[in-house]
Amino acid sequence: MNESFDLSEKYVCQKCIQDPCLKEVVKSHSEWHKCSYCTSRRSSPLEYVIDRIRHAIGTVYGDLEDNLDVDGQVGDHYQIEEVLSDIDFHVEDDDLMEDIAAAFDDQFFAVDREKSYLLRVPSEAWAEFQALVKHKRRYTFGGVARRFPPELDDLLWSPGNLLENVTKTIHDLSLIVPVKEGAVFWRVRVHESGKVPPVPDDFTSPPTQYSIYANRMSPAGISMFYGADHFRTALLEVTDSESVEQKKCGSGIIFRAKQRFLILDLTRLPTQVSFFFDWDEQKRRSVDFLSSFVRDLSKPIVKDGREHIEYVPSQVFTEHVRYEVKSERGAAIMGIKYPSSRDRRGCYVLFVEQEGCLPSTGDKKVPQFLEAQPGFLKTAGCNLTPPCKWSPVS
Predict the structure, then answer these.
(1) Which range marks the domain in which residue 120 is found?
(2) What does the angle CA 100 – CA 105 – CA 108 come to, to the nearest 5 degrees?
(3) Are residues 22 and 276 in contact, defined by beta-carbon separation less than 8 angstroms?
(4) Mean pLDDT over residues 273-295, rounded?
(5) In whole angstroms, what is the distance from residue 126 CA to residue 108 CA?
(6) At residue 63, what are phi and psi to the nearest 5 degrees?
(7) Which of 133-137, 141-145, 321-325 has the lowest mean pLDDT?
(8) Confidence at residue 142, expressed as pLDDT on a 0 to 100 scale
């Protein structure tokens, strides 16, 4: 321990702190005072940094006496240096690191059993949910009994309340966002070289009678529009090894939104670039779970005959969003944006059937949500051999 350590006399500047969140803490409390660890003349009392470190550690670790094992004995425990190493905290100045450790007065820490359990519960519930809808009950899923009393739903997730809790998390993190009129979506079709499908009819969502294949978000028989922010992403999403082996091509056109609508945007999750964000425990659990949930939702799935089973959880989730999730004002959600399983860029599933992609006719009752753009068609080999070719749309 640094024998000259006195917290009230220590100051630290932004240059001496590497963590971006703690830098903001220093910035928000800075004053004209020499840093205790370098020559900087503007710094913050170190106690503010220590307070934020203590708060963040408390979301995972607890006091030793509160986390004894089942026999009332001391289990695994850690000194502050081990905790800071575990959360990947470091500073370049040895004296600063020593003073931060000294502020905890030789305290011992243990992983907080309750908080650790609550952090695992959502992910364990999602794993149970997947197994349930894949292998046990699918069409009567709504009859799954709640495992816990309703007042414990927020803390103790289970397959019976998972979708409800995910909906709460979506609202807590403000993930329902508007798509502006004029927004662009690339739609790509794979075809034999030189045999480009007719535009735009063969680029719309498939007619219901031809929706015979299960997709990531839609089961067989239900037509939806799949698109992407970029041509390359859209092509990667529809290309498989067979398309590459057969030297097929992919052609794409742009559809534009004809009106404003709402989507669930799973690509705009808060990014926890620092362990020291001032989030409460509930938000930490929500972001941690939904981040892993989205990774699982968009992971690559091998088309080996079992894909129609592997797609089921994401299909159930999509249907829940389509019919059960509403905006704060009660408006319906028209689609989901999610990271591509191939390049992590934005992909979309929009709840728009073929009629919603074509101009209105006399007897048409469905409004047109998406409009194919006249102009040019983009084509590339499924192996993405450059260059991409642009050709006029007839």
Answers:
(1) 114-173
(2) 100
(3) yes
(4) 82
(5) 34
(6) -70, 150
(7) 141-145
(8) 73
2 within some domain? no
What is the pTM assigned to this prediction? 0.81
Give the total number of structural domains in the chain.
3
CA of residue 74 relative to chain centroid, distance:
37
Q: Is there a domain that residue 1 lies in? A: no
307-348 per-position pLDDT tens digit? 788 899 999 999 999 999 999 999 999 999 999 988 889 999
Residues sharing a CB contact under 8 Å with residue 356, sequence separation 6 or more, in sequence order: 205, 225, 366, 367, 368, 369, 370
Q: How far apart are the C-alpha atoms of 252 and 197, rounded to whole Å?
A: 10
Beta bridge partners of 78: 109
Rounded CA-CA distance 187/255 in Å is 7
Residue 146 sits in the same domain as residue 241: no
As a residue count, the chain comes to: 394
Query: What is the b/e burial string over 101-139, where b = at least 16 CB atoms within 10 angstroms of the residue's CB?
Result: bbbbeebbbbbbeebeebbebbbebbebbbebbeeeeee
Q: How far apart are CA 281 and CA 115, in angstroms?
A: 8
Residue 273 lies inside a defined structural domain of this protein = yes
Q: Which residue has the tokens 């709640």?
A: 146
Write the DSSP string, 65-122. Answer: GGS--TTS---S-EEHHHHHHHTT---S-HHHHHHHHHTTTT-EEEE-HHHHHHHHHH
Tokens 């753009």 map to which residue? 373
Assign 251 to helix, strand or coil: strand
Name residue 110's beta-bridge partners. Answer: 62
User: Nearest-CA neighbor of 80 among 63, 68, 94, 66?
Assistant: 63
Alpha carbons 71 and 224: distance in angstroms, whole number = 56
Residue type, 143: G
What is the rounded average pLDDT of the residues 69-74? 58
How far from 188 is each of 230, 250, 254, 255, CA to CA, in Å?
Answer: 10, 6, 9, 11
Query: pLDDT confidence of 392, banded at 50, 70, 90?
Result: low
Q: Which two tokens stand for residue 91?
A: 């500073």
52 three-class SS: helix
Per residue in 79-117, pLDDT (tens digit) is 889 889 988 899 999 999 999 999 988 787 877 667 667
DSSP secondary structure code for residue 326 in this structure: B
Which of residues 111, 128, 151 is at a domain's end? Answer: 111
